[in-house]
Amino acid sequence: MCRVLLPSLLAGLMTGMAGCTTPNTRAPAPQPAPVAKTSSTPANPSAWVGRWHGAHGASLDIRSQPSENGYALIFHRPSGVDVPHQAQATAGQLFYRAGPVQTALHPGTGATSPDIDQRALTYCLTTRPGNTTYCRRRDSADALALAHGAFVAVRRACEQAGPAETIVFDGQSLRHPGQARCTTRTLSQQGMIYSLQAGCIGPSASGPATANVVVTTPDTHHLALTARGRETRLYRYCATRSLPGPLQADMSAPHPPRSVERR
Questions:
Q1: DSSP-derived 3-state class of residue 10
Q2: What is the DSSP letter of 246?
Q3: 3-state secondary structure of 245
Q4: Contact in structure between 171 and 157 (CB atoms under 8 Å)
Q5: What's the CA gap between 213 and 231, in Å, rounded?
Q6: DSSP tag of 73
């Protein structure tokens, strides 16, 4: 009788063990970031003025020059080295010489960028040869080619600056010291002149598509700001160490985005 039951017991044991087998819990392979296919950058270099962002902290500043169709390019390397070039606009591109090589800067996408966060972006510029990509978001303040830090009204010494005559730019927003970071949106641009919605430094906008300030950026260390209904004020960059103690402390403190009340 034992011989008859043994095969049945073994079969039951194997069935029970099969039910306890560890399932395959291997995580699915990460999905690649979507790749942009068509550039949305206009073939008009005058619309490219401002700052563009590359991979690994690199950036590119583009400024118009007094000469006809002339532009200044400043490539900011991650190492801290700035590489300037003079460029000429022709057929919707900017041409400059990088050493012995004639290089073109033209509309592109982030599809081949080493930065995976850029690969879905379509508002980009690409070098040829080299295929180096620089992108920006059309509706954000990161197009402002300004140094990050404090800008103080020109008639006030840096050492005597107060919050009302100081504007802080962190690459994403403009605010006065002591304020939480506000979203700053670019509504339109004409060369170095930007129409912005900047809730921290101007009167309330009358609608989602209405600018409340106009900012002009002649270079990275100066700006002119006109809030709606107010006179234009000129500001220049002040190093953090030259500011009064309370403003220095504000510059080093974290500033989370200001919460938005939803109605």
A1: helix
A2: H
A3: helix
A4: no
A5: 11
A6: E
DSSP secondary structure, 111-146, as one string: TT-SSGGGTT--SEEEEETT--EEE--TTBGGG---
Mean pLDDT across the chain: 84
Q: Which residue has the tokens 């850029």?
A: 118
Task: Enumerate the H helices of the chain as residue ranges.
Answer: 2-19, 245-252
- Rounded CA-CA distance 73/87 in Å is 7
Closest CA to 197 of 174, 182, 213, 215: 213
Q: Where are the beta strands (DSSP E) in 68-192?
A: 70-76, 82-90, 93-98, 101-108, 124-128, 133-135, 149-153, 166-169, 174-175, 184-190
**What mean pLDDT is predicted for residues 19-29?**
48
Distances (CA, A) of 113 to 61, 110, 145, 210, 251: 18, 5, 21, 34, 32
Residues 6+ apart with CB under 8 A from 163: 176, 177, 178, 247
Task: Tell me how far apart the alpha carbons of residues 144 and 192 are, in angstroms, rounded to a whole number.
Answer: 8
Q: Cis bond leading into 28, ω under 30°?
A: no
The CA radius of gyration of the chain, in Å to the nearest whole number, is 27
Which tens digit of pLDDT belongs to each residue from 170-189?
888 899 999 887 888 898 88
Residue 11 pLDDT: 46
Q: CB-side exposure of 42: number of CA atoms within 13 Å?
A: 8
